Amino acid sequence: MNNSANFTAPDLQFDTPAAVRLRSYRRFKDRLASVSVGIGGMSVIVAIMLIFFYLLYEVMPLFHAAEITPSQYQGQAVAPYVRPGADAPTWYLTAEEQAEVGLRIDATGQASFFDTRSGELRLQQAIGVVGSQPVAFALGSEALRSFALANADGTLTFARHQYKVSYPNDVRNISPYLEYPYADAALLLAPQLGVVSQLAVRDSEEQLLAVALDAEGTLMATRFAKEVNFITEAVEISTEHVALGVKTTGVQRLLISPDARWVFVLHSDGRLLTVDLQNFSTPVIQAPLQMGTGEITQAEFLLGGSSLLISDNQGVTQQWFLVRDQDNGYRLTQIRSFSDPTPSRVVALTTEHRRKGFVVAEQNGEVSLYNSTAHNRVLTRTLTDQTVVQIAMAPRANALLLEDGAGMISLWQVDNEHPEVSWSSLWQEVWYESYDRPDYVWQSSASNDDFEPKYSLAPLAFGTLKAAFYAMLLATPLAICGAIYTAYFMAPALRTKIKPFIELMEALPTVILGFLAGLWLAPFIEDRLTSVFTLLTLVPLGVLLFAYLWHNLPKTIRLWVPEGWDALSLIPVILLLGWACLPLGVNIEAWFFGGDMRGFITRDLGISFDQRNALVVGIAMGFAVIPTIFSITEDAIFSVPQSLSNGSLALGATPWQTLVGVVLPTASPAIFSAVMIGMGRAVGETMIVLMATGNTPIMDMNLFEGMRTLAANIAVEMPEAEVASSHFRILFLAALVLFSFTFVVNTLAELIRQRLRRKYGSL
Predict the structure, then answer these.
(1) Of 73, 171, 85, which Cα lies nearest the Cα of 127?
(2) What does the DSSP assignment read for 95-137?
């Protein structure tokens, strides 16, 4: 009986309610999955963009333009007012911390404290002994608020302006007063002097030094040495005078360095006379220097007293400081020059109290703000149509007092938060104070306020690339070659054991690797440097030699090892070579380097050696990067369709030819991505670099020197950075640079990967 003749096809119903519900449910799941994947992808993009814009938000204030605007008080602009005090030339103009109380010292020796916003006189009194006739003024220190007056009778009055802050009824009240540290001592200048025309003073814990010049050109130095009486604990003053051995005229300004060693005598014709007072009794006068072609009009010390600012009648301000020469001496060297596009005679010059900035006022009423480290003109603005007589910068650099030729004082608000940041200070060589030459330096802090911040990102970016380069130099060939063998030649049973083990290495915390590298690997390499280089040389050569010998063994012997398992025979070879390299390295060191390879490198080759160096970082970080590159590369090679390999072999190609001509080109996009991802991992690595290197921000490809990377620097300094400070925002700029670098590299990698995919996708 034919059963097929009686077969009846089942009546399939696709429109039943159950089928409709099932299809609807599946469509819902598909749409939900599609939407979820889309939302997830967009969330990643949005998160990356938010990170970028947040970094940009923190960085942008660094590049905001400076502004000078009329100061506001109670919602109204502060109008210019008549200068308080006597109708006499102003010797000195300044303001206290809050820029609410100003001080004017005039040629009559009168100190006038006034409200900077209204000009209302707060306190007025004569400086020193009533009836004394002041003839010269000298600023001691802006930071200490000290100054001195030379009187016609040959005496010296030294004083400080101070401010007592109180809060009656929760309202701030500032009470100014004068303080006289040497009120009980008779400060007499050298008796050989006539009427003093120029004066300079410098006060310290050990002494008060005064240098005076009279109308006849006699230059004398007087040292008031301070000695503490151990019985009464009173401070006793002893006086010593010395002639500086020169008669000079046309002196524009006298200045004394903060250490009281150097006296600078500046002449109107541009000559600078330097006197060395290291041995006070026998001063040494150095050969005069010509500071320029113009007439010197103003001169001041920059913050810290290391740099000398000199302005002339052509609107040019030069920066000079002492540089050690080849004879281990010091010579005054012009470092940089600042000029205005519309030059005019410089009539006033003042410096910032806490930064390496200064303000220049020209005869045409134009005021310019400069920063010496950044070597840029921050702002230029015309503030008056009169000739500027005096300018004063508030201690916080947020306000400016200006006196013009009409006897009017005006108060200006200054917004200049980050003047020390410029393209040159971040990425170019900068000649910093006390340095012998321009250099790339990162040094964000120091122990005193006179410090010149050094915010060069160049050594950090260089260190980042240096660390990544040495890590990739080790990791890339090992990871790719290992992945090729594992995916293409290794037995499947062995592959299932080896691949997870290597991928497990990626889970090892980098802090552990950094800890081992810093505390074990670095001392090991230092003690056995020759053995390490012997190991790095002989092991690859030994592996190649063993491979050659293995290839030439009789086939019957090679067949003892199952196909794909022959790599295991390398393990004892590598262990044996490693063990042999340790004593061999000691002998090589004794034969060729006199038993001290490190000393040979340092002494004979002139190459510095740090224990924690790029070699240690390269090995440790390379070990951390290998699993990433290996895993992606191995998956890419293993995923090449077997039909391609079989087709190539069927056409007569050898396994090696198939690998090189078919498998690797097909997998090249993914291999390239693996290398780029590994490089991104190396660039962003923090803990290994932080713990395994000296963390020194230097630009040197020396294998035996350390480095500081962008990521490590951020990790070290961000907790200590003051919020919203230049240092804080520059660290965010470093993060933005790191982010941008990674983004650009990954974008280029993706473009190259897509091109490789289009080229080899048809294979």
Answers:
(1) 85
(2) E-TTSSEEEEEETTSEEEEEETTT--EEEEEESSSTT--EEEE
Mean pLDDT within 390-419: 93
φ, ψ for residue 421, nearest 5 deg: -100, 125
The b-or-e profile of 644-674 (16+ CB within 10 A means b, else e) is: ebeebeeeebeeeebbeebbbebbbbbbbbb
Tokens standing for residue 611: 């224990």
Model confidence, pTM: 0.86
Q: What is the DSSP letter of 485?
A: I
Tokens of 33: 């999955």
Contact indicator for 285, 275 with CB cutoff of 8 Å: yes
Arithmetic mean of pLDDT over the chain: 88
Average pLDDT over residues 710-726: 90
- What domains are there in the chain, each with its CATH number? 68-442 (2.130.10.10), 458-760 (1.10.3720.10)
Q: In angstroms, rounded to a whole number, what is the distance separating the alpha carbons of residues 652 and 686? A: 50
For the beta carbon of residue 314, count every other beta carbon within 10 angstroms: 16
What's the confidence (pLDDT) of residue 107? 92
Strand order in the sheet with 346-351: 346-351, 357-362, 366-371, 376-382
Q: Kindly tell me if the per-residue pLDDT of 425 is higher than 80.
A: yes
**Single-letter code of the amino acid located at 358:** F
Residue 763 pLDDT: 52
Provide the phi-psi class of 686: left if phi over 0, else alpha when psi is between -120 and 50, else beta: alpha
pLDDT digits (tens, 9 = 90+) for 34-45: 999 999 989 988
* Segment holding 282, helix H or strand E: none
- Tokens encoding 462: 């260089």
For residues 142 and 351, what is the distance between their CA atoms, to the nearest angstrom?
9
